[in-house]
Design goal:
The structure holds two protein chains of two kinds. Chain A is an alpha+beta fold. In chain A, the strands form three sheets. In chain A, strands 2-1-5-3-4 form a five-stranded mixed sheet, sandwiched between helices. Chain A has a two-stranded antiparallel ribbon with strand order 6-9. In chain A, strands 7-8 form a two-stranded antiparallel ribbon. The termini of chain A are far apart. In chain B, the strands form three sheets. Chain B has a six-stranded mixed sheet with strand order 5-11-10-14-12-13, sandwiched between helices. Chains A and B meet through helix 2 and strand 7 of A and helix 4, helix 20, helix 21 and helix 22 of B. The complex binds flavin mononucleotide (FMN), iron/sulfur cluster (SF4) (2 copies) and FE2/S2 (inorganic) cluster. One iron/sulfur cluster binds next to helix 4 of chain A. The site of one iron/sulfur cluster (SF4) has 14 residues of chain B, from helix 21 and helix 23.
Chain lengths: 239, 569
């Protein structure tokens, strides 16, 4: 293991910065006031480098580096806004917008504006849609708004709760967050801790009350809706 | 067919007390016995292996050969990748479906047959090819398939495994058309020599001196990889053989495994000796049932003869080799995704660094090598580094296996000395191109196109690089001027869309958008060319792993060479 007090010095957008060894480029940039955009990154969950909107140019290498996981290397030159970086970020944002309902993701909306992303870039693109899953009194799942940041799966598992109620179905573009065999949440191992709702960056996971208000429910309806397991009558086979 | 009465308990009994690393084997056993993996089966596996049931569901959904839905008693997977496409795969699927009265992806009402399209089965030299799964019996390959009737037959087709060319390193003069037995192969003389006369350090040095670099695509120096792993802290260390060979147009590893299984096992044992490992894993793609059976038999024979197992040949060296079967996921050829698969997880690639040499299988120092790489090692140990260097160039030493398919008179696997020109390979070894050459896809789906005036290039890493091409896994697909290149691109686009794991956005979204645009290439929308470039460049520089980083290579090279392909007619 390296010396705990070891530091590295590098240039970020022309500014010299010295940070402890092991610091991510994201944190080093933040320390000198340079904001690198993120979507999947969250302080409370393990960074997996999924969204790649945080990519930066390091020494003009063949590949861009994800700033949320890549650590600072001594003597390197980092550019957070090179032409390749901008093109990649814009294209990722345009593709994301073409696939997912981002109507309730204000942070991503401002990134779309900042990078001058064309919201109609991909005409005829297949979207990831899914029916709203309203199967419990606590929260509602609308995977048409899911950006697959994995945070909910992670807090449900080793990052926090060790409940293991959530996983993925299928793979690639058609991946969706799911319970085992897509059973309603009350039939899964979910303990309704609500941590997943807390970390969801879009409107995909939403407290039932908030959702009810959006639907125009009265308080009576909300009181009713958040006390019953589901709105729909129970199926014969139960959970 | 007689229905076998097996219960879940019967199938899962052998897994009592085991953990997650046998999840894929357990799922395979259930899939084979029942034709699908039901919620009940998943719950029972969950309690047996102590793995959350949600995780098991996630794993089932990731691998194409596992199904949570009931399927036909016989499932027919027909390859639609480029070489099978040229050989009439679409007609075969249509005829089969017509005969059964279903559409691709459907099951006949009597529950007997399901027909599916699939990506490359590694039988491109016998195109068109199919893989048939039978409930209760497992898989077998059928190739070439001339009519739907052959798909339903229960017989295995004997296939000649034509390795030709210089035949020096891999074949050593012999050209077996069937698995070499232990008696024919010999007594693991290279391993014996190493155990008796060489330190592990000397084995590593010799491999370094030979100049051998990995044959799986990344061309990393093999000796250096072994040295890093041997020097890494942490025990135990592992050797993993990557036999996931799923790059479209690549089938050399299948032929090696089916004809020279002991060569591979001896190479693995030498690697284990060199790095100080006792446990080796051989990860074979699920679509290679014949190779899997041949290797298991070879492991049993070699172990019985004392060439593998405890105290090999009386020395203080133990080497156990376990086979793990993949289940239909090209991404599991990526080394870290492969580790995840062996660990019983979805095949998501890990972020590197850390690298496998320090944090590999079960987070331990691990050597992962391609089948062909390991098959080179016994020769190098027996005859020395200079022997290997007599072939090739300074930077591309030795010989190389290439898989040639498409429009040549004799498709197959050829062993060539590095430096042979592509033209000589096609004209002399493969007996010429059928028709007038239009293009060569060099390096597999992740490779680039070469035009007829580029085929004098000598096949070496450095010469190919100088013209912007790659060797990749040694796949060479040949297309004559009757081929609709947009159709080829569509098949490549569909391949990457199907195989993206979905972990990182550039590839998860980019492979889908790229496929959509390629699908409308006959009537493109204004701006499609720039869309493809933006998607392609973004995938190439921003994706997490090699799949996304190469998923646009062929498209971008086609755009460079035949810009007119992307104009509207
Ligand atoms: C998407 C993808 C698929 C791959 N498939 C294979 C494969 O099927 N076989 C293989 O040996 N290497 C494959 N590789 C390369 C491996 O990650 C790894 O580099 C290789 O197994 C190392 O062995 P080598 O050094 O002997 O080549 C693949 C890489 C990627 C990114
Ligand atoms: S549901 Fe929300 S937290 Fe979960 S992956 Fe989707 S966007 Fe992320
Ligand atoms: S590049 Fe593709 S295959 Fe690789 S991690 Fe990203 S989504 Fe998965
Ligand atoms: S924030 Fe770094 S990859 Fe998503």
């Amino acid at each position: 293991m390296g010396d705990e007090n070891a530091t590295v010095t590098l240039m970020i957008d022309g500014h010299e910065v010295t940070v402890p060894e092991g610091t991510t480029i994201l944190d080093a940039a933040k320390s000198i006031g340079i904001d690198i955009p993120v979507i999947c990154y969250h302080e409370a969950t393990t960074a997996n480098g999924l969204c790649r909107v945080c990519v930066v140019d390091v020494d003009e290498g063949r590949l861009l580096q994800p700033a949320c996981v890549a650590t600072c290397q001594n003597g390197t030159q980092v550019s957070t806004r090179s032409a390749r970086v901008e093109r990649s970020r814009r294209t990722i944002l345009e593709m994301l917008h073409s696939a997912v309902d981002l109507g309730q993701a204000p942070e991503i909306q401002s990134l779309l504006d900042e990078y001058q992303a064309d919201r109609e870039r991909f005409p005829g693109a297949e979207r990831r849609t899914a029916p709203v899953r309203d199967d419990n009194p606590f929260y509602v799942r609308d995977y048409s708004q899911c950006v697959l940041c994995w945070r909910c799966v992670q807090v449900c598992a080793e990052d926090a709760q060790y409940t293991f109620a959530l996983t993925f179905s299928e793979r690639g573009f058609h991946t969706q967050i799911s319970t085992a065999f897509d059973v309603p949440l009350p039939g899964s191992s979910c303990v309704f801790c609500g941590q997943c709702v807390g970390v969801c960056p879009t409107g995909a996971l939403k407290p039932k009350i908030e959702w009810g208000l959006e639907q125009g429910w009265s308080w009576d309806q909300i009181r009713e809706g958040t006390r019953r397991e589901r709105k729909a009558p129970r199926r014969a086979n139960g959970d | 067919m007689e229905k076998q009465i097996v219960s879940l308990d019967d199938v899962l009994r052998q897994y009592e007390g085991r953990r997650r690393d046998v999840l894929l084997p357990a799922l395979w056993d259930v899939q084979t016995a029942f034709g699908h993996i039901s919620p009940e089966a998943a719950r029972q596996i969950s309690t047996t292996l102590r793995v959350p049931v949600a995780d098991i569901y996630g794993v089932i959904g990731f691998y194409s050969l596992f199904s949570e839905q009931p399927q036909g008693e016989t499932v027919i997977h027909v390859c639609t990748s480029p070489s099978c496409g040229l050989a009439g795969a679409d007609d075969l699927i249509r005829a089969t479906c017509d005969e059964l009265g279903i559409a691709p992806g459907q099951t006949t009402p009597d529950g007997r047959y399901t027909v599916r399209e699939t990506t490359c089965l590694g039988l491109c030299d016998h195109a068109p090819a199919a893989l048939v799964s039978q409930r209760g019996n497992g898989e077998h390959s059928v190739a070439p398939v001339h009519s739907p009737g052959e798909l339903a037959s229960h017989s295995h087709k004997p296939r000649t495994a034509a390795v030709d060319g210089v035949k020096e390193v891999f074949l050593q003069g012999t050209q077996p058309h069937r698995p070499q037995t232990l008696a024919e192969y010999g007594d693991y003389a290279a391993l014996r020599h190493a155990l008796e006369h060489m330190t592990p350090e000397r084995v590593i040095e010799t491999v370094e001196e030979s100049g051998l670099v990995g044959r799986g695509g990344a061309a990393f120096p093999t000796g250096r990889k072994w040295r890093f792993t041997r020097g890494a802290p942490g025990q135990p260390r592992y050797v993993v053989c990557n036999a996931d060979e799923s790059e479209p147009g690549t089938f050399k590893d299948r032929v090696l495994m089916e004809t020279r299984p002991h060569l591979l096992l001896e190479g693995m044992a030498l690697s284990a000796y060199a790095i100080g490992a006792e446990q080796c894993y051989l990860f074979v793609r699920g679509e290679y049932p014949e190779a899997t059976a041949i290797l298991q038999r070879a492991i049993d024979d070699a172990t019985a003869a004392g060439f593998l197992g405890e105290r090999v040949m009386g020395h203080a060296f133990t080497c156990r080799i376990k086979i793990r079967r993949g289940a239909g996921a090209y991404i599991c050829g990526e080394e870290t995704a492969l580790f995840e698969a062996i660990e019983g997880k979805r095949g998501f690639p890990r972020i590197k660094p850390p690298y496998p040499t320090t944090h590999g299988l079960f987070n331990k120092p691990t050597v992962v090598n391609n089948v062909e790489t390991l098959c080179v090692v016994p020769g190098v140990i027996r005859h020395g580094a200079d022997w290997f260097r007599q072939w090739g160039s300074q930077h591309s030493t030795g010989t190389k296996l290439v898989s040639v398919s498409g429009h040549v008179n004799r498709p197959g696997v050829y062993e060539i000395p590095f430096g042979m020109s592509l033209r000589a390979l096609l004209d002399e070894q493969c007996k010429g191109v059928r028709g007038t050459l239009r293009a060569v896809l060099h390096g597999g789906a992740a490779g680039t196109f070469l035009t007829p005036n580029e085929i004098d290039v000598p096949i070496t890493f450095e010469d190919l690089r100088s013209i912007g091409a790659t060797l990749g896994s040694g796949a060479i697909m040949v297309f004559n001027d009757t081929v609709d290149m947009r159709d080829v691109l569509r098949r490549l686009g569909a391949f990457f869309e199907h195989e993206s794991c979905g972990k990182c956005y550039p590839c998860q979204l980019g492979t889908q958008r790229q496929m959509e645009i390629l699908n409308r290439a006959d009537a493109p929308l204004p701006g499609d060319r720039l869309r493809l470039q933006d998607i392609g460049q973004t995938m190439t520089v921003a994706s997490l792993c090699g799949l996304g980083q190469t998923a646009a290579m062929a498209v971008l090279s086609a755009m460079d060479k035949w810009p007119e392909l992307f104009d509207s007619d």
